[in-house]
User: Fold this.
Amino acid sequence: MAKAANKSTAKKSAKKPAKKPVKKVASRAKYYFTVKDSVKVVQDRSGPKADKRVKYLVDTLVKHLHAFIKEARPTMDEWMYGINFLTRTGHLSNDWRQEFILLSDTLGVSMLVETLNNHKMSGETESTVLGPFHVANVPHYPNGANICLDGKGEPVWVKGRVLNAKGKPIPGATLDVWQANEDGFYDVQQKGVQPENNLRGIFTSDEQGRYFFRSAYPRFYPIPYDGTVGDMLKALDRNPNRPAHLHFIVSAPGYESVVTHIFTPDCPWLKDDAVFGVKESLIADFKKVDDEKRAASLGMPNPFREVEWDVILSKAK
Ligand SMILES: [Fe+2]
Assistant:
């Protein structure tokens, strides 16, 4: 008995000190970086105080980035080119040019984010990319004003209503509009050439939800092609053009704002938009009008184009 008791005591005392250190070492060893476990090693560095949403987004990004590296196997030179590419993209961005938005746009990422976040179920106006040329603090105009300050291009009368999903007018909605000129450039791309705030401004819908203003027939244009995004498009033999469009951001208290465009129906680049922004529901009818009386009543030259575009907003969530 004594022998047996001694054996069992010996067993217990031998087990106790052996267990803990082995467990700790095994646990630490598991978190050395390995190619196989690379995702888990990085993800498990987060502490208990990590912001849950940030952790989820970064963990998911790490998972897909590591998968990309493991599949594409960039060389060290290619990886360094990528780092320099992103650095140059940052240096090219300023108050007037946003190369990172352009990169997101041309990779189809902007359209994915905005489409997944703005899925419309009840006929509300669909959204599309913001693009890199929106400017804050532009002039507010009364309805009927002319935003075409350089006088170029075919004159267009733009009109419509801002409505809710039931077709009820929304008075007091703001419509922030902007577009490129006849030469295919935004005012901010041609400082000193185009008048400041050419083809941009903010309008407000009236008591019947109506808005109206004069502009110019939009023309297609190439996205900025002299930076990192241009380098990428050239290397991929991709078209840099965006089909002709007029940008809108429409907002009203109690409603979701919509960032959108309307496209001309006859543009050759509709199905080859460099930033994938075209949705069929956003192709508008820019009618040709040849009517002296009507032109005179609107203060327009004759002939001109006219587009009627109602914007339907969804209730704020
Ligand atoms: Fe644009």
Summary: Confidence is low (pLDDT under 50) at residues 1-14, 21-29.
